[in-house]
Amino acid sequence: MAYWTGWLCNCVNRVSTPDMIGEFDLITEFFSSHSAGRQDIVLGIGDDAAVLRPAPGDDLVVSTDTLCQGTHFTEDMPAHALGYRALAVNLSDMAAMGAEPLWCTLALSLPGVDRAWLAGFSSGFFQLARQFDVALVGGDTVCAPLATTVTIHGRAGPDASVLRSGAQAGDGIFITGHPGDALAGRKILENDPAIIPAHFPDRPVAANDELLPELIDRFLYPRPRVSEGRSLAGIASAMIDISDGLHADLVKLLSASGTGALLDAGHLPVSESLVQWAGRSEAVHFALSGGDDYELCFTVPPGAEKQLCEQTAAWQCTVTRIGTVTSEAAVRWQQDGRPLPVDDAGYDHFGGGADA
Amino acid sequence: MAYWTGWLCNCVNRVSTPDMIGEFDLITEFFSSHSAGRQDIVLGIGDDAAVLRPAPGDDLVVSTDTLCQGTHFTEDMPAHALGYRALAVNLSDMAAMGAEPLWCTLALSLPGVDRAWLAGFSSGFFQLARQFDVALVGGDTVCAPLATTVTIHGRAGPDASVLRSGAQAGDGIFITGHPGDALAGRKILENDPAIIPAHFPDRPVAANDELLPELIDRFLYPRPRVSEGRSLAGIASAMIDISDGLHADLVKLLSASGTGALLDAGHLPVSESLVQWAGRSEAVHFALSGGDDYELCFTVPPGAEKQLCEQTAAWQCTVTRIGTVTSEAAVRWQQDGRPLPVDDAGYDHFGGGADA
Asked: What is the mean pLDDT of residues B314-318?
């Protein structure tokens, strides 16, 4: 989940005006450039979260993410899944910083008061809040088109926050879980929203095709890698979560670090379900460009790989080495020993999706 | 500015559904009741802000407010004034807690990219941010109808936060500034938006009627009483900021304290401009029920009134004693020695306005 680094891309794509400028220039011109000043800011705009220092040794990690109907989800999104997601995408930001999530606020924009919908939404939200011991401490609600904005607060990891900017040539590049599944699930739902029962209980009911529930579940219920992220503080040299697509988000990490990478698409941990549903070639495509995965991509110095192995033994998700950081700025993928061209479009490559 | 205490009132009023319930019940049923748990929460949902305790002696004060076009402002609102207001309403929450504002995040929902609008918005936002040394540390932006959500973080006052719940019988009731002016300014603009020049420079240009600019300015540019609020930590027994109307917000404070009040409308500090524009009787009405003032209403124990006098000598705004806290739960206004009936509707009494 980007934190003011990928915003407005959908907006810019959709709106044609003589004043149209890129989102990065826009942030710089109107916001970042005015935001200097305080000495208690360790890290401001531009990473997965801000790092603030109210007192020495007590870093506070803060992130805000908005989800809007039409941009980040369709009207078919079950209330339970939306409540879950509103918090999940913010937890994923904490994970990407190696931080412990503590508290959040919720700004909820509703077109009307629907008790059944609110029951589903709050049930999904608090299911995840309880799981990660995150407290909702306040918020605001207004009558407007459906949207959620969650601001989450966390405590920095024991060895400080893991930023995007710390990767060095020679570091290994790793990814958790199975990228691409979430996009497949999204596409299945877009083609047939009726797969989700009208009165959504808790999890999507199994469709006839036994591949579908797993892929749909990966889209509707991304697992924020919070404990994994926290255990990487002090081990990973750089980290980002994958919301806009593995390649696009990895490019952000490498760019922030002033490095490049050599990667092998043959090592991508595509799931069996994705391969069966999409075919192997398309599965790699999904893994490289699909958004909404909320897996962690991180780099580890060679001297820390043993420590990484010890940590990952306790993880509930897979972790896969997919390449190596290089000093040359280019990001080069190969497959079967041949160069594999990959563009930078990320999730928009598929013509829709999230910018947050 | 209420913090999940007055939300959705516009929504409930506008939307008719079989499931319609009051906003307080809705918050309790779907959100507050799930939000217990952590030991590091001093104060959760229900005051002007949450109070969190990452470490002893280091309380963090957090508040979130959303402003939506159509609910909180009209399309005539100049971008500069909206940028100013987006931060001002949150600063007012910090003021009401006696806290020092430090950092904020901004979630900005835009229908499109308009550089002139963004220049005005950011100019208004950062004018106030610089004035109060508040840093913008991150945010998110999406393409959707115009709305802003600011989450602000502050440090609790030297004598801890001032809550709504501390008023005791015998305490004096005070208010800063001139309540009612903002609503008058809003009504003037609603009747004649052309008073604001199309290319709004910085402040509204004077209209022919010399009363108007002051009242309009009070609506467009409310002054958050941050330094006044901070100086009241350790003096005021309870405090709230006036966003929904003096009477309505005072009722919230007294209700949280389990007390009532006897108040004299003849002591209300209505401005000369308001009296000239509306007449004295209507001016009192505006002062009691008008929203958007963002003045502070607070209570002070008899033993601390001397200390209050010493503090207010340095203030840039007036402070007026308007009544006394009573043990009887009723909130009774009188004028010229006779009871003055006042209803609890607050800002909605005038058929529109803000719920946040």
From this structure: 92
* Among B218, B186, B187, residue whose Cα is nearest residue B294: B218
* pLDDT reading at B217 higher than 70: yes
Long-range contacts of A276-279 (CB under 8 A, 24+ apart): A276/A211, A277/A184, A277/A188, A277/A211, A277/A212, A277/A215, A278/A180, A278/A184
Residue B20 pLDDT level (bands cut at 50, 70, 90)? low
List the domain boundaries for chain B.
172-350
Instruction: Write the CA distances from B266 to A151, B240, B285, B350, integer angstroms.
Output: 44, 22, 12, 22
- Give the pLDDT confidence of B149-181 residue by residue, as tens digits: 999 999 998 788 899 999 999 999 999 999 999
Chain A residues near residue B141 by CB distance under 8 angstroms: 4, 7-8, 11, 23, 66
pLDDT tens, residue by residue, B257-288: 999 999 999 999 999 999 998 899 899 999 99
Query: What is the Cα–Cα distance from A254 to A7, expressed in whole angstroms?
Result: 19
Determine contact, residues B56/A59, Cβ cutoff 8 Å. no
Among B161, B157, B167, B209, which Cα is nearest to B185's?
B209
What is the block-wise mean pLDDT of chain A (356 residues), using blocks of 10 residues? 42 42 72 76 86 87 93 88 96 96 94 90 95 93 90 89 94 97 90 54 46 85 96 96 94 96 96 92 92 95 95 93 96 93 53 35
Question: Interface pTM (ipTM) of the complex?
Answer: 0.85
Span between the terminal Cα atoms of chain B, in Å: 6
| Residues whose CB falls within 8 Å of the CB of residue B42, separated by 6 or more in sequence, listed in order | B51, B52, B53, B59, B161
Residues in chain B: 356
Q: CB distance A143–B55 less than 8 Å?
A: no
Check CB contact under 8 Å for B140 and A149: yes
Closest CA to A252 of A313, A140, A167: A167
pLDDT at site B106: 95
What are the beta bridge partners of residue A333? A263, A340
Give the C-alpha separation, B125 to B152, whole Å: 13
Would you call A34 and B122 a contact, using CB atoms and an 8 Å cutoff?
yes
The CB density around residue A339, as the number of other CB atoms within 10 Å, is 9
Closest CA to A38 of B139, B153, B64: B153
The half-sphere exposure of A84 on its side-chain side, counting CA atoms within 13 A, is 21
In 3D space, the residue among B225, B228, B207 whose CA is nearest the CA of residue B216 turns out to be B207
Residue B209 has pLDDT above 70, yes or no: no
**DSSP-assigned states of every residue in B234-281:** TT-SEEEE-SS-HHHHHHHHHHHHT-EEEEEGGG----HHHHHHH-HH
B3 CB neighbours in chain A (<8 A) are 138-140
A40, closest residue in chain B (CA to CA): B102
Q: Do A142 and B66 touch (CB under 8 A)?
A: yes
Nearest CA to CA, how far is B262 from chain A (Å)?
A: 31
Which residues does chain B have within 8 Å of residue A31's beta carbon, measured at their own beta carbons?
Answer: 106, 122, 136, 139
All residues of chain B having their beta carbon less than 8 Å from the beta carbon of residue A139 are 3-4, 7, 31, 45, 64
Q: What is the CATH number of domain A172-350?
A: 3.90.650.10
Per-residue pLDDT at A136? 94
Q: What is the CATH number of domain A9-155?
A: 3.30.1330.10
Q: Which chain B residues are within 8 Å of A112, Cβ to Cβ?
A: 11, 14-15, 17
